[in-house]
Amino acid sequence: MWRCRRGGGCPQGRHCRDITNLSSLGFLGLYHGFQATDAAVEKQTCCRITLPRKRRAYQGTPPADQVLLCMTNCPTLIVMVGLPARGKTYISKKLTRYLNWIGVPTKEFNVGQYRRDLVKKYKSFEFFLPDNEEGLKIRKRCALAALNDVRQYLSEENGHVAVFDATNTTRERRETIYKFGEENGYKTFFVESVCVDPEVIAANIVQVKLGSPDYVDCSNDEATEDFMKRIECYKNSYETLDETLDKDLSYIKIMDVGRSYLVNRVMDHIQSRIVYYLMNIHVTPRSIYLCRHGESELNLKGRIGGDPGLSVRGKEFAKSLAQFINEQNIKDLKVWTSQMKRTIQTAEALGVPYEQWKVLNEIDAGVCEEMTYEEIQENYPLEFALRDQDKYRYRYPKGESYEDLVQRLEPVIMELERQENVLVICHQAVMRCLLAYFLDKPAEQLPYLKCPLHTVLKLTPVAYGCKVESIFLNVEAVNTHRDKPENVDISRPPEDALVTVPAHQ
User: Which ranges carry the 6-phosphofructo-2-kinase domain (predicted)?
Assistant: First the structure.
């Protein structure tokens, strides 16, 4: 049951931003201190609980009462630790991408980039020598500039998580950063990447550092030699996180990119999710294949949702997909589908074992299931306009939003990170969500990513991102992509609402 705090006659109904879900009686009872019954709820004034837009950045030690107030939901500062070529930036970028995808505003602050912006031309490893006073001053200046931007992001711009990507190899430097977090009311969580396997280190150097802006004018051999000397500059002063000396810190220590882990003092749900994610990622070369089911009978008619079978062309695509996968000669390929008929029929043509995931089912359109866009505009013009205004957060009546779908698909992302070669046969909205994760697309763009029928996307994770290849399998299909119309006003004429609807039977 939904109630607007302004009274029962709110014209926006359940779409009002001041609503409170009164079905959450346990929460309301706990918060307001009364027995959670319908009668009790009716007698209470339900208030909208909000957080301040700006958080105060403290200079010096914060008052004790303020520290207590931010114990649960205060911002998180993630601090990377480790020698160069240990995968810190790789981890930073993946973690930032994941947290943003699940709806936690996160930003990465790479101190190396601050140094490159300040010192336009890199000369050699000598810049990093411990007795190079000028180099030390510049690096300290860059670190302070990055921390100042961290404060700006977390305290003034409503950021939730900042990732401070630098070596941070000494206990003294980490203590300084920890105090910075305390003074500003942040929780600090350290992520250390330790590599002792020479093959892992060599692979990191080849894949990442040889493509660094520092070495654009160097040969591979020159770059490798200089970078190895740069690593030596840090080794003598490197102090790893210690179970005894750092027992009061919150951290995860990752050995050889996932061979083993050490986790200490995880303090809240954000840190728990970070740890869980980091324990699932790996760097083994692999490819992920994403495609939609073959064209369905309802696709031909322009109807959304439902559980139809494949059209004639859809069955032809299934055969072409089987031929394509066979020609790829993919080692240990796993095939995943939803539990809907059209993805299962597509997978059956492959002639290989496949797994059905209910969480891969198409977005639930609620009361609009199996309707055309024209019928939705005719019967629910307000809903149609509201969805165009904010397609990511809009929830169909008795259905789902893209935001809901992202939360539903998080276990799939975790498993995809754990696996090697996988083919996922899914649906348009589901494929958009998965693609947005791998390509680091923001929520506003996610619902409009183009995922045409009868096209396979091959995703190959690379050093700091993902390479995408689009393969059309030469079987024609209807277009199901609808762009956002220019006019999204709730009083728009029908022709403006339907201008971007693709053609159908």
Answer: 71-285
Side-chain-side CA neighbours of residue 283 (13 Å): 22
Reading the block at residue 138, the tokens are: 């510049």
| Architecture, CATH, for domain 288-497 | 3-Layer(aba) Sandwich (3.40)
The CA–CA distances, whole Å, from 404 to 113, 426, 492 equal 35, 17, 27
Considering the candidates 108, 160, 192, 293, report the single residue annotated as catalytic. 293
Q: Does the annotation place 295 within a ligand binding site?
A: yes
Question: Angle 402-418/269-278 helices, nearest 10 degrees?
Answer: 40
Residue 466 makes CB contacts below 8 A (sequence gap 6+) with 438, 439, 459, 460
Residue intervals of the chain classified under CATH 3.40.50.1240 are 288-497
Q: Quote the pTM value.
A: 0.84
Q: Is residue 296 annotated as involved in ligand binding? A: yes
Phi/psi for 145 (5° steps) reads -65, -40
What is the rounded CA–CA span in Å between residue 162 and residue 106? 6
Q: Which residues, in sequence order, are CB contacts of 63 under 8 Å at separation 6+?
A: none
Can you tell me the distance from the alpha carbon of 248 to that of 119, in angstroms, rounded to the nearest whole number?
Answer: 37
- DSSP character at residue 446: G
294 labelled binding-site residue: yes
Helix (H, G, I), strand (E, B) or coil at 164: strand
Say whether 190 sits in a helix, a strand or coil. Answer: strand
- Known binder of ligand: residue 6? no
Q: According to the annotation, is 298 in a ligand binding site?
A: yes
Helices 402-418 & 88-101 angle (0-180, nearest 10): 150
Q: Which of 385, 363, 361 is nearest to 373 (CA)?
A: 385
Domain with CATH 3.40.50.300 in the chain: 64-278
Contact assessment for residue 243 and residue 262, using Cβ atoms and an 8 Å cutoff = yes
422: helix, strand or coil: strand
Cα dihedral: 374, 379, 380, 381 (round 10): 60
Considering 108, 192, 316, 362, which one is annotated as catalytic?
Answer: 362
Mean pLDDT by 10 residues, the chain (505 residues): 41 43 35 37 35 44 46 89 93 97 97 92 89 93 98 97 98 97 97 91 77 81 89 94 97 93 96 97 92 99 98 99 97 98 98 98 98 98 98 98 98 96 99 98 98 98 89 98 98 98 95
Apex 173 CA angle, 170 and 179, nearest 5: 140
The topology under which CATH files domain 64-278 is Rossmann fold (3.40.50)
Cα distance between residue 306 and residue 365, in whole Å: 9
Catalytic site residue 293? yes
**Active site (annotated) includes residue 362:** yes
